[in-house]
Structures
1.
Amino acid sequence: MNADVTVDHTAEVSPWNDTTASVAARVDALIDAMTLREKTAQLYGVWVGASDEGGEVAPHQHDMEEAVDLDALLPTGLGQLTRPFGTVPVDPALGALSLARTQARIAATNRFGIPALAHDECLAGFAAWGATAYPVPLSWGATFDPDTVGRMASAIGRDMRAVGVHQGLAPVLDVVRDARWGRVEETIGEDPYLVGTIGTAYVRGLESAGIVATLKHFVGYSASRAGRNLAPSSMGPRERADILLPPFEMAIREGGARSVMNAYTDTDGVPSAADEELLTGLLRDTWGFDGTVVADYFAIAFLKTLHGVAAEWADAAGLALRAGVDVELPGVKTYGAPLAEAVADGRVPETLVDRALRRTLTQKARLGLLDPDWNPLPAALEGADLDDPAALRGRIDLDSPANRALARTVAEEAVVLLSNDGTLPLARPRRIALLGPNADEAVAVLGCYSFPQHIGVRYPGTPHGIELPTLRVALAAEFPDARITFARGTGVDDGDLTGLPEAVRVAREADIALVVLGDRAGLFGRGTSGEGCDVETLALPGAQQRLLDALLDLGTPLVTVLLAGRPYSLGRAVEESAAIVQSFFPGEEGTHAIAGVLSGRVNPSGRLPVGVPRGPGSQPATYLGAKLAHAGEVSSIDPTPAFPFGHGLSYTRFDWTDLSVDVQEAPTDGEFTLTFTVRNTGGRSGTEVVQLYLHDPVASVVQPVQRLVGYARVDLEPGEARRLRVTVPADLASFTGRDGRRVVEPGALELRLAASSADPRLTARVALTGVERHLDHTRRLRSVVEQEPAARARAE
């Protein structure tokens, strides 16, 4: 092994390196030996970029940060390395070598031999050059398939761990409250049960690979006013408790997440980064979370610059530290010299530093970073000749065939067929008109946190590092005998209509027309979807609706395909398109998945994780609204969606029959068991997504008309039937009462087994009896769905 990635293990083992002692004892010994500056050094990171030559990382000079001098910082240690792979394009093997060399230097420079903890983004795959670009989280929600999402997360985590990364900044557990918000693509959907169950599966997968999962953004980011990024949140305490907090609670209790990231926003005037009641009182004292709280990038500095609750950097550091933020990311702005000086002069108690330090060192100890045999060289480079960096190039494959197969599975399960007059699947068309701005655009399948769209756009001329077949290419492979004629028509958001006549001509001459519309992901206004790409209405960007309407005026059957980061109003197309196919940034295999749905090779099974609006201006709207939030005679605005939450069609048919309920009444600490049969009565295999909604007609506080409390994917061959058994604990009927405590009240309930939030198939009317019961964080969080083996359905 090269000397520059070798750590000396011959020295006497210090108490903090003694693996026979408890982690707590090791950490206490280390804290006792540290100076104040050595303590605070473990509480911040440095934003770096790995070297594509295999040399040490270089500090990233962000426009919100001053230049960082590593030579000056490292003698006291370093808590984290920020995004070594997700800052510049770098060959994975050379990036891993660069990180290993830097870690060896960090450990050798500080007197305790402590390396940094390296973190990176992994919102839709490891955000590194050449790594698999999986579907975005909104597509995870569309799968209604926690198991597959968990397998995907495990694969992402293994790739990250193999190159030396320890922590992943995902998943996003924000529940969509306003689809105008640019970060909708990063969320899992508009329902907390769906977000919680899918998000928890992702956490389990990531953690199973040894990566510290980071839940974000805690809490209320998605409830910002008017869907504007970083705007104040207007949620009340009940909305926060019943809608926004449950996914985080589930991911901590059931997923074992080891880190939480605060939200940028304030709630009723209190910024999350300074909210002691939230970050310490609820998260730690009530829920028992014992991991680390990391700051969203620059969030501590924002206490001074954006929120105005701190006059100086030291004040901001003190507020965040007292609230419970353990680590400043991405840099050293407030927890560096300002914090040390504030502790030295008595403005901030050193006990607060020690509290955060104990958490960060405990995490490092559990990751093996304090062990005497710690090795900076990751597994992927073991046995490699490190003296020849050029020979390493291409050694590590972060986009393996297995990864791509998994990415395709997720993409196929996530495609939602919104409408179909029988035109789909396409029956060997001879002439296909392929139209629209996303039909021949490689990056149209990628979200804003994919490497090509997040980082690659800053390096023009650099190849994407992964294969990104356009839908035009995928259709040519899917329909080899068809003549496919392409016309762009208009851009995503440029408003240019000069190509409209050509698009109309091409469509008029075809047997079938496919128009591919939607978004371009980007950051801070550089796209139509993504962080900082908020919109005023849910009308299609640019002149896309004009193109769509012009094509609908023709006699050619038109299939509308969406590659987007949020749902859009589609105007006339809802009624007049031959079919509508919705895909939320489905990743590098997404065009093959869409082509498979169009041809019938794939039977669509995706379901909407967010409703598709009927009009562009009826936001914010969600199926979780109370009765007053739905259509009525007292307002001229009808928020009823064109396609509701949970909706999705198949190429086969399913019947739901034979509902039985074990008891009609159960105590407020009891449960109900529902049993019913689902049959595939169509001519091909398919997947039905069974959804269970709870309706509480009378409660002491206003409730949503209904809310999801269970679901399952049911795979059936033609003629097969399966008996399902669903156990629903009374705890799932709980809500936050008038006194702020969670309560289960006696009374009537409806349990609706449904194909979507607007399509109930079977309803069980039951009642809870006995006394009102108060619950705490140990309550049951899920229904249990069991499926008996499939059997051939009896002939009717």
2.
Amino acid sequence: MTRATTVRAVLAAAVLLVSVLITLTMSPRLGLDLQGGTRLVLQAKDSATTKADRESTDRTLEVLRQRIDSLGVTEPTLTRSGEDRIIVELPDVQDPRKAAEVIGRTAQLSFHAVQGPGTEQEKEKGKGTGLTLPDEQGRLLALGPARLTGAGVKDAGASFDAQQGAGWTVALDFHKGAGRDWTRLTGEAACHPAQDDRRRVAIVLDDQVISSPQVAPSIGCNVGLPSGSTQITGSFGADEARDLALLIKGGALPVPIEIVEQRTVGPTLGAAAIDASARAALIGAAATALFIAFVYRLFGALAAVALAAYAVISYAALVALGVTLTLPGLAGFVLAIGMAVDANVLVFERAREEYAERPGRSLGSAMTAGFRGAWSAVADSNVTTLIAAGLLFFLGSGPVKGFGVTLAIGVLASMFSALVIARALTEIASRSRFVSDYRGVNGIARPGRVRTWLTRRDPQLFRSSRRWLLISTALIAVAVLGIVVRGVNLGVEFTGGRLVEYSTSRPVDVETARTALAGAGFDDAEVTTAGAGDLSVRTGDLSNDEEHALRAALAEEGGHTTKVRDELIGPSLGDELRRNALIALAIAVLVQLGYLAVRFRWTFALASVAALVHDVIILVGAFAWLGRTVDGIFLAALLTVIGYSVNDSVVVFDRVRELWAKARRVPVATVANRAVLQTVPRTVNTGMGALFILAALAVLGGDSLADFALALLIGICVGTYSSVLTAVPVALVLEKSSKAPPPARKRAPRRTSGGGAKRRDPLDNGARV
């Protein structure tokens, strides 16, 4: 074994060992669409006194955090998104009415005199007009009526007092009238002895004591604290002081909030999605592994081992990085398994070519040449997929972001799997005399049936390239006709409104459900079937109370009615998401064009983008003809198809560039024809690997993944066609008007083969050596 092979083997073993340990000791973080629960997106609004900016949104978030904790929700998640949005995730909360009621309530901050220790009886019955609440240590305090509210607080801030040695303190500043009330309140408290509970002042937010400081001994009776110099001291840490300041200030200056998005997923739907995706992954991966082993024999089996290692590594990376695994992300993880074979197929096909061109060379040198020759195409194709994943993350929302992260991790893990793990395994195997001598065992020394058939027939695909353009134009015309005639069925994510799916204990047909809802006052409700006997109801603006009444109307016909899924999108957010989707597509096209123009010729770049646009139009048109919903999940599939389409085009044009540089006097049409014939085996074998996975997702993935898998199935088939029979003809047409010279040939170090055979012309049909 060479030193490089040893390094790869040790690195592969180390990464795989760490990945196995992470897989066995850590659990994935599941999104709400997999574990069930409610997700809310809140939009902060400007008030008469406060602008909805980053600072005011942070204050609002801290107030909301305290309120949600009072719901008893297990591990709620609150994060700020952008300048003025807050994302709230509540696992296991199936009825968003209670959560929305608590979240939407105006902040109630008040200041009370402490009348002394309280009792449980006083807490239950109340005492006059006051309250009995536990303080920060859990001791009950009897509080008097509110003396001033949070509206009187002008500002609150945390600071570190190094001179007085008081540590972290919270300074309060009141408006003029409220400042006099504060002075009077603290002056009355100062009339009681030190350490007496009655010398304390309780600050209460939403019926919870957030602080109950004692008036300092230096303050005289009925003198009180002036507004501008009030400080709350205690054993605060930096975070505690800042949180207390945010709570006090947030209660004083509440920012109005509006629920612009609400999604609820039942736990059974999430569990079913996980089970279905797991079955699809196992069956699809097994079919892919068997296929790759059948085509490439021993080396294909080694690639299947590397594929299994890839699955472990990418899963461990998702868990270790704390990535929230959503339903689209889970589908992306399954899809990436099928796409991970692409780099291996590229290498194996290049190794077959090297072996065929120089039969006397050793199997090990052919594999090394295969890895070296495939590197450019592997790098470029994976970069284009990473671009698509980046666009999904930065321009998508919610679960689509998770899909982008999963796809990016999958691409990086697949490169490591192919270029380190698979290479180490194949290099070790290629040095075995048994593997080298028996061509039927290694799978590389024989050219393969597809390549043999193409070499023998040598079809001239581009003798009349315009006919392929006419076919592509006809396909686009059919797709556009579907968009115009049938229209695009935009989901509520892009139009705004509410979509709720229900499961009933008794079967209810669509017409009966429509009649029942119309009788209950929901005349505009659109009712359709949602698979497995479930009903899908789509309406415009629908409050949580109205949704409860709608469910009750269905229950009269269907018996016990359970909400399976609930999506509420505000009209402003729907417009924004629709606009962002168009921006994402435009940026995807421009970024891919720029990258390909730098890496290749401008003619190749425009041709690849033309094929990309061709694929997008046909996929949207297909969904229009089929009446399928176009939503955020479809957008994730569409951007993935863009990456896949450009991936295929890159492989073809990389070979065109290589062959043309070696035969600069040969017509570009002849070069392109030979490049396509050489890359067809790779295209077919890679496509088959992805199709196995997608077919398993479409059949076994359930209704929630059916449209996603269908979009990718259509996209991959169309993308495979367009990368050869649309992109190449467009490039040939553009090259006729291009004055740029053929690409320059790369200088390679001079090599000699053990058998002394000459390297044949790259455009030779193989009839002579």
3.
Amino acid sequence: MNHIQWVELVIFIVLFVAVTVLGFVASRWKAGGSLDHLDEWGLGGRKFGSWITWFLLGGDLYTAYTFVAVPALVFSAGALGMYALPYTVVVYPIVLLPALRMWSVSRSRGYVTPADFVRGRFSSPTLALLIAITGIVATMPYIALQLVGLEAVLRTMGINGSGIVGHLPLLVAFLILALYTYQSGLRAPALIAFVKDILIYIVIIVAIIYLPSKLGGWGHIFDSAKETLAKPSPTTGKPAGSILLNSSNQLQYATLALGSALALFLYPHSLTSVLASRGRNVIKRNMVALPAYSFVLGLLALLGYVAISAGVKPLTNNATGKPDGNTIVPLLFDSQFANWFAGIAFAAIGIGALVPAAIMSIAAANLWTRNIYKEYLRKNATPQQEAKQAKLASLVVKLGAVLVIILIDPQFSIDLQLIGGVLILQTLPAVAIALYTRWFHKAGLIAGWIVGMGWGLIMLYGIPNPANGKLHFGGSALAMGNLSIFGWHPFAGTGLDAVQIYPGFVALVANIVVAAVVSVIARALKWNPGVDQTAPEDYHADEHDKDLRPIGAH
């Protein structure tokens, strides 16, 4: 650990200790019942108001990895990295009505996870199990990516090593996170999110005003970025990117943004934050107010161009010997800010890793407990046994994420997250569309899930990345000329060969088509559709309805 930035490190530690105290204190914050109940531990008692939900969702959706990866993508690829901005703008009007219905039926029926809803809607333990497994698999690398963001900050401060000893600060940070999450449940990240988001807002506002004035203004910054991105890459011989989209990546940009928007609230941690709110009005207010975070994200993305203008060079990844783009923003702050303010910025990113990691681990634990443990291993589990199982599962999930970072190349986590986005998108028919219609037969949804998953993985596997020499899982851009349907290339020779598209979107279309065809066949053959355990009034229930079942009722 050479050249440690002691001022930055001390400020980072002080703020980290402060949020640790908040994490343990949170167990008594807004406590209305025993934390030995999944509704209290895993959903905060379902009574978070508008402000708490706003900070919780903001801390959940705009993660530490978002704050390092989006500018890093803009730094390396230019305008394509801006896809995160339209996707986090259009997501809220898309999600508003489904989120309200999911909250209502979950509150009425005591559902804790999206797989609970699928189980009740289609009377299909198998379909619910597939949804639960998909959610857990898609969430695990997301947690690991928070560690990638935290580690980028630690490396910038001079804490740079390998093996168990080199990763000791990371281990300590997540041991503390595991302990206060175990004790306080969802209340811990909800309370810490206040600190995290306030720090993020301060840092980004200062950065977006101060740095351009220091580097010659936005005109100079954009000119520098345009010139640098246009230079041929030494590995591919082609320009790395552009500050404007071109004809080949416009479709990819649009489908990636739309696909990501459709997927965002399918992730179990996003729905956990929604279900923790106390009413439909809280959700409505948040869907209106959350784009404020998107505005900040847009400002943050511009820091990728600022880093180009400032001449920032990423640190080398110890495992691969290649530049680590995730260090771009921390290095920019380290080189351009005073040490004390860089320390605050690093603390904001570090705390920004803890909040979503806690929520994600809780969401994965809820899925394991309700849809695997209780469904298949202990059907008569008491609320106390459920809560204990969820607490233990959350520890295992965090441990798994840490081991991935320590034992495996962090790039593997990024690859897995790329896969995870495609996978979670395949749950849309069973989770989101099913909120409005039960026309799809459970057999059709299972068949669609299998096709969407399989084809999505096949397409991702076939995408190379010449820039880093990867032959498979090299990105999220599929050339339409390479799009194959049982060996048939429908777009080959059509002039669209070089046009790129997001494979997750293609897989989703195939998923829905197959689900519809199999549903028609199943209904024609009069296969048993199962008994719908939900009622029409469940989808419109609000917090004032006197007929709501007790929380936790099945």
4.
Amino acid sequence: MSRPGRAPRNTIDKESMNNAVNDVVWTGTWVAERLGVELVGDERLGELLGLALRRNPKRAHLLVSNVLGKHVPQSPSVVYGHGFALGRRVRDLLGAEDARAAVVVGYAETATGLGHSVADGLGVAPYLHSTRRPVAGVATAGGFEESHSHATSHLLLPEDPALLAGSGPLVLVDDEFSTGNTVLNTVRALHERYPRERYVVVALVDMRSAADLGRLEELAAEIGARVDLVSAASGTVRLPAGVLEKGQALVAAHEPAPPAPAAHGNAAKAVRVELGWPRGVPDGGRHGFTPGHRIRLEGALPAMAARLADALPDGARRVLVLGFEELMYAPLRLARELEQVVAAEVRYSTTTRSPVLALDDPGYAIRSRIVFPAHDDPDDGPGERYAYNVAGAGFDAVVAVVDSVADTPELHAPDGLLARLAEHTPSVLLAVVPSYVPARTPTERPSMLPEPLRGPAFSSYAPDEVGWLLQDLSDVGLEAPTEEREEAIQSGGAHYAESLPVEYQPNAQYQELFHTALADSAARLAQAVGAVTEIVLAERSPRPVLVSLARAGTPVGVLMRRWAEHRHDLDLPHYAVSIVRGRGIDANALRWLAAHHDPADVVFVDGWTGKGAITRELADAIEEFEASDGITGFDPEIAVLADPGSCVRTYGTREDFLIPSACLNSTVSGLISRTVLRSDLVGEHDFHGAKFYRELAGSDVSADFLDAVAARFDDVADAACAQAKELLAADRTPTWEGWAAVERISEEYGIHDVNLVKPGVGETTRVLLRRVPWKILARTGAGADLAHVRLLAEQRGVPVEEVDELPYTCVGLIHPKYTRGATGADGKAVTA
């Protein structure tokens, strides 16, 4: 990372406090003297900053900018000029070519106008600012947290998702760069989804402590990108011990009593000025603001300013243009234009959510405070809002500029902003900028889907092993007896995904068989894991996003993730999603993945193939999703450990052998059930569901399975890499011979329904554990791979028929045309 060097440091001591700017008392004196706070750094710090006390349990002091136009009314030319000059410096730093490719992002709420001014200084850069106002119908392109703020969650809601997807420099603008946490959170969140080679951090003041100075360099090394920093001034704040407690005590001692409730009376009378805002030009950067928008706005500004000037009272000598929270840029540009055409002194500031102590002292930055209720129906509910340094400032007129979302009855109420302003100025004008509404898709969806479920709250896997894009249905009764489910499924009265089988609890003999099978096959499994992972890394993506098909694919996805970490030091994201035969993949899970990763990097993972039904299901579902959502890039090709059906190109082996995770249900899959899709439980905008069987923790062998296989990685590394190399050079075109075999078996055995024929060791095991089996076909001479199948068949009274030249090791046949009358009194399937 490169960064302009800091100027020699200076301490703003008591003498310089009182002579900071033209012999005017420095507006940080009061706080500095009482808290022992010192500003150390550039000589300009005292000119740019004052100090106040926050009403915030996380930080005692507030650096109050004199040139930002938030808390302190300032000449709009000064405010705009500082941002524009920083933009020019960024342009010079980047050079003409990179500056043309740059995108600027500002932080809500304080730096929305500053960031927009920086974008103007770059000249051709599109602009986007974060927001704390969710907008229905607009999908989020990211989010991050600001840990020290009174309101932490930031959203990015570009109308055009491609705005952030370019490879050019990303310029991040905030008013103050203190700990660096906000920027670090932002860069990590965006870089994971939209990696790029260069970032520029811009701030009016760089106030990092010595402990924080190296964090940008560490971030740059971590992500492999260049990170530059541009600021107007730099320094740091020296805080004595116990400053938070002292600050809170000072606030408590000087906080005035709450104002008496406003008497019920007439609403405020403000003169409404019709601006003539240009149609289609956004009110700011909440959804993106392009250079074309800027050209149109600048063409319309003179006429809008003239309308404001005509509405001002005669003889007005001092005028304030007051913006509204995140709406900073539009009122700033209006104020700057008005400043050019009227003789009055024009000042600019905005209202804010930030609670700060007001104290009428020349050495304190916040001299007065106007309190009023929120008037834009905020997502976090009603609350107080503030306008600082307006009361008692001698303004002859105040022009309140709000967007149309905030032009509500609360704004005009007896205790609303307009009425409060009227108590302190003889003339209040209201200018409303139309809130920009991005084009909506025909079917609106929630802008944010929930974050993935993770262990230990959901599943026994470690939280970094897998994120489940599912909803937790653990408290819902979904289990039904196997025979009831089979009859309902075959009669067409229910879909298999609408209920769950009762979880099979293995006896001691079967558990011992599982552990024996695991010990015997761990190396074989590890080699297949290594081979398929190496193929994925070579052919699909150097940093794939593994998305396993829950639940059989999930242990395999975890093992592939472990191989990539063990062999290549890669920390791959891994999620589990639901796919349901006949219903497709969970479209909301795809939307979440597309919102957080490049779809081209997504690799779907499953344990094995049978006849290839899920392979076809996924391909059809992805095609349907692309048509409905317009999101492209997902590759429906599944990566599997074993492909005995010859249905896919990406596999570790095509042998049909025992994968021990097929021997059990939830107790080898993180204690998670098969997925559920039922209309009364899963809404249009919900993830599919599943249950977490916490009560089975005593029988859980999920970690045993993973650890046993991963322990053999070193032993099989050479063989796995050689196998991958051989497969990469081979013709792996699917032949679908498994599907042909299933169709033949279905006809030969008079079943006439391929869905009741389950080929392969894994699928046969599922038949025995979850369905009502009719018979098992075993290839003549099959040995240890079928030991657990023979045991399960014996327990359920199911015949095992040996067959020559069977293309699979075994095939499970579900009882055709099943009714409960087809079982004996003990519930076992008939034998003929």
